TrEMBL record:
It catalyses: L-methionyl-[protein] + [thioredoxin]-disulfide + H2O = L-methionyl-(R)-S-oxide-[protein] + [thioredoxin]-dithiol. The active site is at residue 120. Its cofactor is Zn(2+). It holds the Pfam family SelR. Residues 9-131 form the MsrB domain. This is Peptide methionine sulfoxide reductase MsrB. Binds 1 zinc ion per subunit. The zinc ion is important for the structural integrity of the protein. GO terms for molecular function: peptide-methionine (R)-S-oxide reductase activity; zinc ion binding. Belongs to the MsrB Met sulfoxide reductase family.
């Protein structure tokens, strides 16, 4: 992984939309079934909306029915950080961008083969770099 980036909260507010800021910097979430990429079938690489780090490939995306874009694996384990999240009276595993520390979503152990993982990610935390594959 590349060196971590650090910005002031004001710099983040200037760079991100209000929704992106809420999700990435305040650990918020978008409402289920409302995100841009929830039903997307476009091909490409999903990158962090905060810093551009490549996070997920479209060929790892699947329809989990959860209301958020879901992926069964990250492009590289070094591009995401996982941390125990005990907020909201639950114990979950938070997924963050390893480069900028932005909150992406959570990962669960109920995904498809080959990983058995479901990275449940907010659309607001992502940008899709499309390709024509």
């Amino acid at each position: 992984m590349q060196d971590k980036i650090s910005k002031s909260e004001q710099e983040w507010k200037e760079k991100l939309t209000p929704e992106q800021y809420h999700v990435l910097r305040e650990k918020g979430t978008e409402r289920a079934f409302t995100g841009t990429y929830n039903n997307s079938k476009k091909h490409g690489t999903y990158c962090c909306a905060g810093c551009g780090t490549e996070l997920f490939e479209s060929n790892t995306k699947f329809d989990s029915g959860s209301g958020w874009p879901s992926f069964f694996e990250a492009i590289s384990p070094e591009n995401v950080e996982l941390e125990t999240d005990m907020s909201h009276g639950m114990v979950r595993v938070e997924v963050m961008c390893a480069k900028c520390g932005g909150h992406l979503g959570h990962v669960f152990n109920d995904g498809p083969a080959p990983s058995g993982k479901r990275f449940c990610i907010n659309s607001a935390s992502l940008n899709l770099n499309e390709n024509n594959d």
